[in-house]
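Q: What residues go here?
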């Protein structure tokens, strides 16, 4: 059984806390390893390593930092299949999803390769007589990242490349449920030639997070995970004067207007609701069918669901894999039961699907006639369950989104440009799709929701990532009148 350890000072370091957590292959239900869970002193060692590396790293030229980032990018690309295989083995997502995740991770590294452009300052010549003013952005020091189980390779790359390209050093605390892929990527980071201490990985749970939040030498924290923990991390980290960005959970709505291309909307709903078993923060979990769109939409989704192949993510035939743990699978099934008991119509019941092994599988569920008071609507389920809410007008649909406490993504399906434009303005969410169900921004824009989907005032990666990992320094300079200089600058003299 594999033992997953920390990475400190570019070396694998065995855990000493005596605490571990089991790792499972969700497709078989078998335990495949254990991950060390750090104590406060192990976190302290990682932070000390990052602190010791900071001054020298922050002075490394932009040219060198860029070269190292390109080398890292190429190593990830060369090892993409291995990263993806580790994702499937511990998360359960199918190989094509895993490959897509690695591609999005690479996109974020590529953005950081352009750090020479991103860190250009601004300069005002002759702000006053003989006075020039210029602004630069300086790194913060040691920064930390705490990441969720559902994108164990991509989410760390929302953070690490930009942070280190800006001259910071990093301590990553990946999810304890599927830590092998981020650890492997960190090993490739070391292999690329980054000096010891620039990126350290501590494996762990709440104890590690709490120590990072309290540590005086950690200057900023990026967090991605569920809303209650995001709020806790934001409040605790900022109470100890850290800069914190904390992205939380979601309940993403997709409005389908009566004029929409129903086939396109149904294809999108199926891939966005059931892809990665619904364990995506940008998954669509509510389809809001307006007027006459409802019946054809529900029929078209149902037909597509019946064709989905669910199985081991490593099998190329599988289109959806298992859930992350047995407990989570049972919790999701419990929501389906609660929806049914509350009066929703169960069009397709994922609990009926049969699987011939002990993996954490659940079939796909479609609930119709869901109302906003049901727990299937109010809670983030994070599983393969799509709820259809029927409304009479576009306005009712937009109001549902506005009244929802979360505001990560929202989408509309329509052929009407005016309706789409109106939705762009009305959508009470940070990321909006027009005939695009999962509007995750490309790496050169930034990612982040509104309301309970994000705490803090900067979103993550892209230009806002550069902003988060740097602070401004403004220099005002004045030099004596050159005519009086001891260096002969060619000015006429009185002699
Ligand atoms: P989680 O909140 O349980 O865990 C996230 C991280 O916090 C992990 O590293 C975990 O070890 C740590 N953690 C867990 N409990 C903690 C506690 N009590 N105190 C301190 N730290 C703790 O989330 P998860 O289950 O790993 O991931 C799924 C959640 O993440 C979903 O809610 C999903 O919507 C959200 N998510 C959001 C985004 C986004 O961009 N907004 C992206 C991916 C996932």
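A:
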């Amino acid at each position: 059984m594999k033992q997953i350890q920390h990475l400190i000072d570019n070396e694998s370091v065995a855990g000493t806390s005596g605490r571990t957590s089991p790792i499972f292959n969700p497709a078989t239900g078998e335990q495949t390893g254990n991950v060390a869970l750090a104590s406060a002193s192990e976190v302290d060692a990682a932070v000390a390593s990052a602190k010791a590396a900071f001054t020298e790293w922050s002075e490394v030229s932009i040219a060198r930092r860029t070269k190292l980032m390109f080398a890292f990018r190429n190593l990830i690309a060369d090892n993409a299949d291995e990263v993806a295989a580790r994702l499937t083995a511990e998360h359960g997502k199918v190989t094509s999803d895993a490959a897509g995740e690695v591609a999005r991770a690479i996109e974020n590294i590529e953005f950081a390769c352009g750090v020479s452009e991103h860190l250009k300052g601004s300069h005002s010549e002759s702000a006053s007589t003989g006075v020039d003013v210029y602004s630069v952005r300086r790194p913060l020091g040691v920064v930390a990242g705490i990441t969720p189980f559902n994108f164990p390779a991509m989410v760390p790359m929302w953070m690490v490349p930009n942070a280190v390209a800006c001259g910071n050093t990093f301590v990553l605390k990946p999810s304890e449920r599927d830590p092998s892929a981020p650890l492997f990527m960190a090993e490739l980071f070391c292999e690329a030639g980054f000096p010891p201490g620039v990126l350290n990985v501590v494996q762990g749970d709440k104890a590690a997070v709490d120590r990072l939040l309290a540590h005086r030498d950690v200057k900023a924290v990026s967090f991605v995970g569920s809303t209650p923990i995001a709020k806790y991390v934001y409040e605790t980290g900022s109470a100890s004067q850290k800069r914190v960005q904390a992205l939380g959970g979601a309940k993403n709505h997709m409005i389908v207007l009566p004029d929409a291309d129903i086939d396109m909307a149904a294809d999108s709903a199926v891939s966005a609701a059931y892809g990665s078993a619904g364990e995506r923060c940008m998954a669509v979990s509510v389809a809001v069918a307006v007027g006459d769109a409802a019946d054809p939409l529900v029929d078209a989704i149902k037909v597509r669901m019946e064709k989905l192949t669910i199985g081991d993510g490593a099998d190329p035939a599988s289109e959806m894999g298992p859930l992350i743990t047995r407990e989570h699978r049972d919790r999701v099934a419990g929501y389906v039961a609660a929806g049914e008991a509350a009066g929703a119509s169960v069009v397709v019941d994922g609990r009926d699907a049969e699987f011939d092994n002990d993996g954490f599988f659940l079939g796909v569920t479609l609930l119709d006639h869901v109302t906003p008071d049901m727990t299937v609507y109010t809670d983030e389920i994070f599983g393969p369950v799509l709820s259809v809410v029927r409304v009479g007008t576009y306005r009712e649909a937009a109001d549902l989104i506005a009244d929802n406490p979360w505001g990560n993504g929202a989408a509309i399906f329509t052929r009407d440009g005016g309706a789409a434009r109106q939705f762009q303005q009305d959508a009470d969410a940070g990321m909006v799709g027009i005939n695009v169900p999962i509007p995750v921004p490309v790496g050169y824009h930034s990612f982040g929701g509104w309301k309970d989907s994000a705490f803090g005032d900067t979103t993550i990666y892209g230009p806002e990532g550069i902003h988060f990992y740097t602070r401004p320094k403004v220099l005002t300079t004045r030099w004596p009148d050159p005519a009086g200089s001891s260096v002969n600058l060619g000015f006429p003299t009185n002699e």
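A: Context that may help when evaluating the design: The first strand starts at residue 2 and ends at 4. The mean pLDDT is 97.
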